[in-house]
Amino acid sequence: MTNLAVIGGDGIGPEVVAEGLKVLNAVLPGVETTDYDLGARRYHATGEVLPDSVQNELAGHDAILLGAVGDPGVPPGVLERGLLLKLRFAFDHYVNLRPARLYEGVTSPLAGVKPGDIDFVVVREGTEGLYVGAGGVLAKGTPREVATEESLNSRSGVERVIRDAFSRAQSRPRRHLTLVHKQNVLVNAGNLWSRTFTEVGKEFPDVVTEYQHVDAASMFFVTQPQRFDVVVTDNLFGDILTDIAAAISGGIGLAASGNINPTKEYPSMFEPVHGSAPDITGKGIADPTATILSVALLLDHLGHTDEADKVEAAVADDLAAREPGAGVRTSEVGDRIAARVS
Amino acid sequence: MTNLAVIGGDGIGPEVVAEGLKVLNAVLPGVETTDYDLGARRYHATGEVLPDSVQNELAGHDAILLGAVGDPGVPPGVLERGLLLKLRFAFDHYVNLRPARLYEGVTSPLAGVKPGDIDFVVVREGTEGLYVGAGGVLAKGTPREVATEESLNSRSGVERVIRDAFSRAQSRPRRHLTLVHKQNVLVNAGNLWSRTFTEVGKEFPDVVTEYQHVDAASMFFVTQPQRFDVVVTDNLFGDILTDIAAAISGGIGLAASGNINPTKEYPSMFEPVHGSAPDITGKGIADPTATILSVALLLDHLGHTDEADKVEAAVADDLAAREPGAGVRTSEVGDRIAARVS
Ligand SMILES: CC(C)[C@H](C(=O)O)[C@@H](O)C(=O)O
Ligand SMILES: CC(C)[C@H](C(=O)O)[C@@H](O)C(=O)O
């Protein structure tokens, strides 16, 4: 019996999560869910972000589904570092998986780009780099102030995510893997990444590899998205690249993500890339597709490959059948996709 | 008498620089130029990157025009850190200015985006952040390896570039300035940047301000480039954002940049954003427009505002008159623009 922790969160989070669960229940009846009240609301009410006891409970689940957390009243960093990144780090989510696919029926902002032209996946490292929270501040608020941020990169951390990306590339038809970094400037980390990439690549002789600087890759995402199949990169570069990837494949309303611990030692966490969108909260017009696609990633991770494929196919069909330019009703999207997978 | 140091560099560098100088000479006859042989060729021949004596000579000029340096035979970082960044840091080029404008006659890869929709300038910090070369490596080549990169940010460094950006925004019709950072994750540096932004903003009450995370900004560059007027950001974010900006406004062949020391204590350096493009070197087909637009930035910096405007207008006219889809001949572009400004 699958045991899912659900963090609806703030804003549209609970609205889109409800639809994700509707679809999950339709395709795989009987998943047990436990709701956790975490996010801005709890923070405002109690000052708590993620009590240890809650973290321990979460650890006991098979997976976590998260909607979105945050509102403009919470100081920057509090929920990000105290909740989202805390869980990514505590549960060792070293593969932050973000597929980018332009579905039939969805319009890319890129001229002349058709469905099929964009179909790649970014494997973003999730537990190292500039996200570790290393750094400090000297003489804060004075003219002498110095603020630092440190990117920490370990051989084992880099190697495991690169190996994961190679094996994903190997299982795809094109077998192409692009490493993105900035090795001409960030020479220490860049050298570690590219040396490890070359070494691990020897285990995957059938995968074609390429290196791109992050600035060039950001450009190519816009000018030649067809180039990409699997992309592996560090935490911060991955953050930026996956938002560009979302933009070119129809927007953040469709972008799914999985914070994955491939060893399954800890639960993986699945969440749409978008935020809590306070401006449209409560109107019933948030597109739950990104969450539903995140449910597909969740199913795949838990070994329910057929169900995962079914959900993705149902999403594809639903997108293809939508009235161009018409808005969505959150619950109708969930109903339609649930019906397709039942 | 203006005294210009010229670093043609490698690949197409000397080809595009020749056209930049042709235009410069046409619009402002009598600029004295001195050529400096720096880049991959010199490195391969002598092992030298930037001898102190050459750096001292460069320091004696009013400005520097650089084509492009590098070839695939030079290890990553050698010329970047030993020459380009060395000069940016030594000559305190704290304003890395990168305009993005979609000219009439140029096709954006973005659907439905017309000339006039993209007209913004990125003020990228040029002397701090992750570009300072701080960091190290432990146990290199072993399973225990750890590689670090450190971002250093000083109040004075952040303040001066933010003030520059505000004053550029104030002199533009829209008076809009966007700060881009990642303050929800890079809390130390992000807080310094956004606090300083708020404080300096009080000196410019007529400038409308906005903050965006770098991932969101990267997305908006693609989905809503009309939003932007002036953007100020740190060194690495600026590197990425300006390549996206170049991509959406017709490609790196048109993207100009100025590494500017506004105090004029040291010479500023102007260069196209593109690289040495070994694949098209010697064919006479490199587009020198980015270099010519960099010459416009150079003229503006040196106080020759009318000449700068003339060059930019001539480039705009030339682009508007080009046969759509036809390739360019490097020297013909230079001839045509030089004729227009004479
Ligand atoms: C909210 C923030 C901490 C997060 C990140 O930077 O990873 C988000 O942008 C994402 O991409 O999941
Ligand atoms: C070549 C490299 C060091 C440089 C940078 O990263 O600044 C380049 O990408 C640029 O944008 O001028």
Identify the quaternary structure here.
homodimer
Mean pLDDT over the full residue set of chain A? 97
Give the names of the bound compounds: 3-isopropylmalic acid
Just give the CATH class of the largest domain in chain A: Alpha Beta
The poorly predicted ranges of chain A are none
Q: What's the CATH architecture of the largest domain in chain A?
A: 3-Layer(aba) Sandwich
Q: How many helices of chain A does DSSP assign?
A: 11
Describe the structure.
Two copies of one chain form a homodimer. Chain A is an alpha/beta fold. Chain A has two domains: 1-97 and 259-342, Isopropylmalate Dehydrogenase, CATH 3.40.718; 119-248, Isopropylmalate Dehydrogenase. Chain A has eleven helices and 13 strands. Chain A has helices at residues 13-27, 40-46, 52-59, 78-90, 155-170, 187-201, 214-223, 235-248, 289-301, 305-321, 330-341; strands spanning 3-9, 32-35, 63-68, 95-101, 119-125, 129-134, 137-138, 146-154, 176-181, 208-213, 230-233, 256-260, 268-272. In chain A, the strands form two sheets. A ten-stranded mixed β-sheet of chain A has the order 2-1-3-13-12-4-5-11-9-10, sandwiched between helices. The first copy, chain A, has a three-stranded antiparallel β-sheet with strand order 6-8-7. In chain A, helix 10 (305-321) packs across helix 11 (330-341). The mean pLDDT of chain A is 97. At the A-B interface, helix 4, strand 6, strand 8, helix 6 and helix 7 of A face helix 4, strand 6, strand 8, helix 6 and helix 7 of B. The structure holds 3-isopropylmalic acid (IPM) (2 copies). One 3-isopropylmalic acid sits between chains B (80, 84-85, 239, 273) and A (184-185, 215).
